[in-house]
Amino acid sequence: MDELDDLYQDIILSHNKRPRNSGHLDPCSHKADGFNPLCGDKLTVFLRKPGESIEEVTCQTEGCAISRASGSIMTTMVKGKTEKEVEEIITGIKELLSGEEEPEVDLAKQGDLASLVGVRKFPARVKCATLAWHALESALHGDATTTTE
Ligand code: ZN
Question: What is the CA(29)–ligand 1 centre distance, in A?
Answer without folding.
Answer: 27
